[in-house]
Amino acid sequence: MENLQEYSHKRFNMLTGEWVLVSPHRAKRPWQGQEEVLNTEKRPSYDEHCYLCAGNKRINGEVNPNYTDVFVFTNDFAALQSNSPSFSSNEDLFVYESERGICKVICFSPDHSKSLAEMSVGNIEKVVAVWQNEFTTLAKDAAINYVQIFENKGAVMGCSNPHPHGQIWSESSVPNEVLKKDIQQKKYYAQHGKTLLENYVEQEIQKQERIIFENEAFVVLVPFWAIWPYETMIIPKKSAKDIQNLTPEMRHFFAESISVITKAYDRLFKTSFPYSSGIHQAPTNHENNEHWHWHMSFYPPLLRSATVKKFMVGYEMFGMPQRDITAESAAKILKNLI
Description:
Blueprint: E1 9-13, E2 18-22, E3 71-74, E4 88-91, E5 94-97, E6 101-107, H1 121-139, E7 146-153, E8 165-171, H2 176-192, H3 196-207, E9 211-214, E10 218-221, E11 232-236, H4 248-268, E12 275-280, E13 295-299, H5 315-318, E14 322-323, H6 327-335
Helix pairs in contact: 1-4
């Protein structure tokens, strides 16, 4: 393992079937590139100009209720339309087909100033319960074959509104990243009779090299094949294909895991840490999908400080993903912040 910390090498992502180039020696190079503007502005608990705050009017003219917990509504500018007509073409090299879906916005809290890292575990549990309910409802729709829950936090990750919120996009087909994981997990399950991630978690617990935190039901770790500098995953210790059957106790342990890692992120560079997070679950295509093991990933862009981020350009665009800091180093740093 010593060579992995000093010399360039490739690591294989068992979940996607793809490789990532790791170059630990590059972390020592001087940085003269772009630095992001650090936002130190203290947000108020209520912003009269925010279209997600309770009681405020949204851009489409609708008025938000005076919600006190979690608030869900259909996205006013949805990327997917439920009323799209059915059409397609297989003409030579110009292939296309229609896509239908439903997009929702989930306000985590009425408090404009609080991110998940600043919310109590109990309040995060309420968010998880809404995720469960929305997933279950959307999964029953015969026109929906996949439900993607995600959050973009911070302007550097393209978030257009600082109010704590996430989204759910549900659609009639299974998206690219999920298809990759579906193929790899199905292949592994056929060979081993056990989910890929259940075996992976067991081995990570034995090694104790990349685990940041664990409770009775979940582990939080930097995956061996991580791409982003401080990428992490929350993985249930026991396999389950989606979050529909989470018990109240499991919701608590999941919420605790989210709280722990988001707080650690904020401590890392003493800033409200930006990231994109998402939950990958089995398709809702009414198949067995016993090979699936759901998980939540966090992809934070910051590399050296609150103002220096990792760019996915050049070689990453035309070759393969590349990272400078090893997964083991990142895990050690994050673990020390808990």
